[in-house]
Amino acid sequence: MQRLLWRRRFAIAVTLIMLARARCAAGAAVPDFLSNPLPGATEPPQPLLHQLAEQWQSRTFGYTPRTRHRNLDGTPKYTNRLFLTSSPYLLQHAHNPVNWYPWGDEAFETAKQLGRPVLLSVGYSTCHWCHVMEEESFEDEEIARFLNEHYVAIKVDREERPDVDGIYMSAVQTLTGSGGWPMTVWLTPERKPFYAGTYFPARDGDRGARVGFLTLLQQIDRSYREHPDVVSESASALVEHIRRSLAATASDGGLPNADVLHAAARQYASRFDPENGGVRGAPKFPSSLPIRFLLRYSRHAGNQQALAMATQTLAQMAAGGIYDQIGGGFHRYSTDARWLVPHFEKMLYDNALLAVAYLEAFQATGREDFAGVTHQILRYVERDMTAPDGAFYSATDADSLAPNGRREEGWFFTWTPAEIDAALRSEQASAVKTYYAVTARGNFEQRNILHTPRSLAAVATELKLPEQKVRVLVGESREPLYQVRNRRPAPLRDEKILAAWNGLMISAFARAALGLGDRRYAERAARAADFVLTRMRKDGRLLRSFTDGHARHNGYLEDYAFVIAGLLDLYEATGDARWLDEAVVLDRVLEQHFEDTRVGGFFMTSNDHEALLAREKPSYDGAEPSGNSVQVLNLLRLHELTTNDHYRRRAERALSAFGDTLARAPTALSEMLLAVDYQLDTPKEIVVVVPSTRGQADPFLVPLRTTFLPNRSLTIVASDDVATLAKRVPLVEGKIARGGKATAYVCERRVCALPTTDPAVFAKQIAKVTPLTPTATP
What we know:
With about 775 residues, the chain is α+β, with helices and mostly antiparallel strands. The chain contains 30 helices and 20 strands.
């Protein structure tokens, strides 16, 4: 009876919502608060008001407008077009008094009709300084009025539109010599930039700025009206520079050789911080020192300095405040040279890349603490960043609500001694406060960022306890501290699902499944891969972003490249040929729509994408690797697995296209150095044939886990499946499980060593390294 009553109530509620939507669509009255005009803006057209009203009716339960401008009943005083979008970042600005438009023809046509310049603001949902500029400027009614009267304002989420971000970031870097977010660019109605910067304080004198944002808006508006020829000439010259810098080079630099790797290693050694690890100075980004390249260089060139740089950096990072000591995972970067004080946002891509870096360092060194960090990163992603359907969310914010009701950076992650005392038994609390260097004074705004500046042994000595006892006390404290912390108001989580970043995390879970021997990780990777391939693909083409049950936006180069890499890793971790087949299918799309058939390499956007000022060919690896760097390695791996020489030729053509860049500035393409190392090595081609089930290969996977063997292909196949798989992976043809036992075949350039059923023999076969010559020291 109770269940029937609830069903009736639910049916009535659904009917009322549908009727409300129908009234809005039919031109019913729009709520008064949505009709409230934005300061200085013309009255919105009725169709837009009805769209806003319909969207308001369909808002999620408990929706709270993110604005300080509210009516007495809690409804927003202002609502703009961004309320109709799906991007979490754009929705953060949906109730600013600014008359924001999303990127599109409507905004630029309006600018042409009104004869106004365009103010383009680009950021992302977890960007601290984006929030600051919103609060100071875009929530300010006086600034909003001037913007609405003199500009057409456009807001872009850089994570959904990396193509727009890349083009206009080039303008910022050209004009200012640096870049960052929020990105602020002034454009003509023809989409040409003529002035640019990043964060601007609201008014003259704020934060020490001589000229504030409002004054700058006034000055640029005056120049645009009084000197249109100068603005036009400046914009045209800047556009030409952008096109030259982003366009593909027509020169063939030739295949890079070992000199490129030696030069890169020398450059990193010259910048290395011998005390703290990473690159000298501050701020410190994990990506500034490419750990995975240094590990490969150490192995291939026999260079111990490279290994020491990598391991010291990883150890210092894991001991610092940039690492979430309680919840696992890394914050985006450290503001100081010691990895202590981070910007507290967490990005999915950072954690995917770092999980693999720590895993590879474990394989290269045998250090269990590095394996532990990988486990903790993946546990963080499992608990805090995984959607119900198995895909992975994008990021969490740096800011969270403090007890004073204001959003404060880092409050969620920091502690006072009293809070720790209240959460733990006294013996645990004492060990935790000593180990994590917690003091009454604190190290961040009277609170403590947990970090481990001293070894466990030193802490045990101070506490006069056995080291193992302290290890247990600290270890057992993490879960209760995590649970206590989770009762605080959490930072905003950006729940959009990006294909590219999911590809990176699929790789992390798949590689960890193989490298740490945990099949659950492969299951996590497979669920996410299935989500991307089934929910984020239309007519065979990947879509970039998924939110609120819908996938949107064309996929970019990085979406294809990162997902292909994840599928190849998943194939090696599971032996399931589906993932190899899907990687091949996606590569065909990439070849058809993204590849530069003239000189090699790949464009960021497809050949049927929206025409922008330039079609970028990514040639720089930053916090994320470029799609070109990852795809070149994908092609080399596909060649090893399939023996299809077409993959090799495409990979070498791409490497040649970037040959000049690699020779001139090898550290600009730090991730492509992984592909160069692969191409210069003699990759091991490993086939393990099992009588029936994959688990029978485990004795061979044990030495594979503890051997750093980055340049290899791996296929595990059951005897009954050999003939079928041989059509995809020719190297497995004719291979058998000898004597009914799992049998390993280790090959190089299709020539195989004697097959073995002995894991010890297999371990010796895979341990052989082809030296990188000529040998040089950085």
